[in-house]
Amino acid sequence: MKYKSQSVAYWYFAVALALFGLQLVFGLLSATKYLGPDPLLYILPFDVTKVIHTNLLIVWVLCGFMGATYWMVPDESRTELHSTKIAYIQLVLWVLMGVTAVIGYLFRWGTGNKLLEQPLPHKIVIVIVMLMFLYNIGMTIKKSGRLTTTEGVLLGGLGLAALLYLPALLHYENYTVSIYYRWWTIHLWVEGVWEMIQGGFLAYLLIRLSGADREVMEKWLYVIVGLVFIAGILGTAHHYYWVGVPAYWLPIGGIFSALEPLALVGMAMFAYSTIKRSGMSHPNKLALHWTVGSAVFTLFGAGLLGLAHTFPAVNKWTHGTLITAMHGHAAFYGAYAMIVLAMITYAAPSLTKRPEEGTAMGYWSFWLQLGGMFGMTLSFATAGIGQVYLERIMGLGFLDAQLKIQIHFVMLLVTGSLFAIGVALFVIDFFRFAPRFDMTYRAAGDQEDGLQLKPGT
């Protein structure tokens, strides 16, 4: 750790991992409800557990983004954070917002707008927190007078993410209008500006872990950002197929959604070509696993599986089924969960007393999570294919179809439990090492702008 203020990242990572664990609890609880009598039906019904599960995902990933940014920006700008006090106040507000929102969902206090269920007071707190965050990061960069392309892409993604949250503050009684504007936030986040955030972190990690040339990395970033803007914005149309908007959205959605995976292909090539040239000489190979794994699994989950059901002729059969869950789980995990875990794994030897080369528990966590998520994806896929055939072609009712595909939810619970064990190992591996906030430690083999740095420099 070169700068003392980077230590604030530890507390963001700690909160993010705690919320990640809680998200899995509600996810597994939601899955069990497909298997039979539900003893918690009148205490924690499915609609409540699912809302908590999906909203905790947003909260912990954003918390991880903020922590990773507070680690990366001082390192890139070569200066202390503008204000650690603002960072800690921001974290307290974020935790209070998240906890009270979850408690509110237990009592059905929410807007009912999927993934944006937060009540208006909570949304206002989110806006305040994001403004504090962007101010702190912006002033840090201004103070240093150094803005790298990697930082610029990351900051651009974070700033646009905050801007695109503003439509979520609006309320519409008409469902078609409401869902139309909802995708301005959700789609343009997860299939747009969040990919810029992922790209920024990915470039930073590859530069630091492989010693790759910064100029080459940043050229790749320009390609990725360009593809995100070309395809991602108009690709929003694939959410408009069946919500009551004019038919011209069908070809727009089909064409530009098909182009969206190009950015993900670029990201995977970006990671692969870097490691191929530089090898895996950095001692923190565990962080390299998470970094390259994020790029590759994003291509699989967001790219391949998204493309599989994005065309209108296919989507008319698959929308609203478990095929969407198949794509959503794999895409979100690969693109955003894994890149946050990569940043945590990279920073952990400096923030804690974890060995630089990682631990056996860390590697078990990586492979169990990867195997578990792949199994969950297959479970959702087989269940979704059965559901499409039974409901959309054979004409069975929803509950009758669910009874016939229950075996796939047994598979889902088994693979989900495997995934949960992997996450538990990651959380334990993070917290079992005491925090270390001294400024003298620097990871062996760390790279900066293609130059290898010695420990302690």
Automatic annotation (TrEMBL):
Molecular function per GO: cytochrome-c oxidase activity; heme binding
Keyword Transmembrane found: yes
Swiss-Prot/TrEMBL GO biological process terms: aerobic respiration; electron transport coupled proton transport; respiratory electron transport chain
Lineage of the species this protein comes from: Bacteria, Pseudomonadati, Pseudomonadota, Betaproteobacteria, Burkholderiales
The keyword Membrane is assigned to this record: yes
A cellular component term, taken from the record's GO annotations: membrane
Organism: Massilia eurypsychrophila
Domain of life from the UniProt record: Bacteria
Protein name (Swiss-Prot/TrEMBL): Nitric-oxide reductase large subunit
